[in-house]
Design brief:
The chain is an alpha/beta fold and 257 residues long. It contains ten helices and seven strands.
Length: 257
């Protein structure tokens, strides 16, 4: 029997977006995997430090029920309790969406990682999810102010911050280029179809791309004969999405036309 890999995401709704199809993909590729998350709406690195340092019950805890084949959750959870409930192989962290591309970068990232290493107290692999920019129709005040409403400018900010603050941190073992997969897909399909609102990924396209990027990056799954697919995704677009993911893995910081 395969050893179960335990993965904990600590973040926000973008963590939830990435998780959706991972259990289904793990079943297809015979990977024994438990993936769970601690999320707070719009949760930033600053807030994660606060919640974990002061043991606040601010998190929503999501986990997959393998017997019922569905996601379940609990609210008002203390994140430290979940950290201590099992031995984790990977933790996946990220910045909040509104802070991901800001020119100040991630000034408290080193402090955050030092806290995580203290809390886990054993060798665990830390991964970074490189998130996606907002769609061009987003009308958030800060998006219009800081990025001139330009999703390409926001993406460039995300890439610069990952290069400057994440890749230079020896404690982060790899970057999951979810944002680049989404940007690649914008080259071949309607932008709005990848989002379900001005921030989050759509259930049948955007989330599928994010989950596929995660599994390809971490487990190097072979996408050639991929069977898992969202309901209603036509075969031609599915093949193109596979190429979007492959290209994001090969070139995580540039858009493939």
């Amino acid at each position: 029997m395969n050893k179960t890999t335990n993965i904990l995401l600590i973040g926000n709704s973008f963590s939830e977006d990435m998780m959706m199809y991972i259990p289904e993909l793990a079943r297809e590729y015979n990977i024994s995997l438990d993936i769970e998350s601690l999320g707070y709406p719009g949760g930033s690195i600053d807030q994660q430090i606060d919640f974990l340092t002061n043991k606040k019950n601010e998190y929503t805890y999501r986990y997959y029920n393998h017997e019922k084949y569905r996601w379940e959750y609990k609210t008002n959870v203390i994140g430290n309790d979940i950290i201590n409930q099992k031995h984790w192989d990977y933790i996946v962290i990220q910045e909040c969406s509104y802070g991901s591309g800001q020119p100040v970068g991630y000034p408290r990232l080193k402090e955050y990682i030092s806290l995580l290493k203290l809390l886990f107290n054993y060798e665990v692999k830390i991964l970074w999810q490189m998130t996606w920019p907002y769609p061009s129709y987003n009308q958030f005040e800060f998006f219009l102010r800081d990025f001139n409403g330009d999703e390409k400018k926001m993406y460039e900010g995300i890439v610069n911050n990952v290069k400057n603050d994440v890749l230079t941190n020896k404690d982060i073992v790899t970057v999951i280029p979810s944002g680049t997969s989404i940007k690649n897909a914008k080259e071949i399909t309607d932008e709005a179809s990848l989002y379900r609102d001005p921030v989050h990924l759509s259930f049948n396209r955007g989330r599928f791309l994010a989950s596929l990027t995660f599994m390809k990056k971490i487990f190097d799954i072979d996408l050639t004969n991929l069977e898992t697919e969202p309901m209603g995704l036509n075969p031609n677009l599915k093949e193109q999405f596979k190429v979007c993911v492959e290209n994001a893995i090969k070139n995580p910081f540039e858009i493939t036309k």
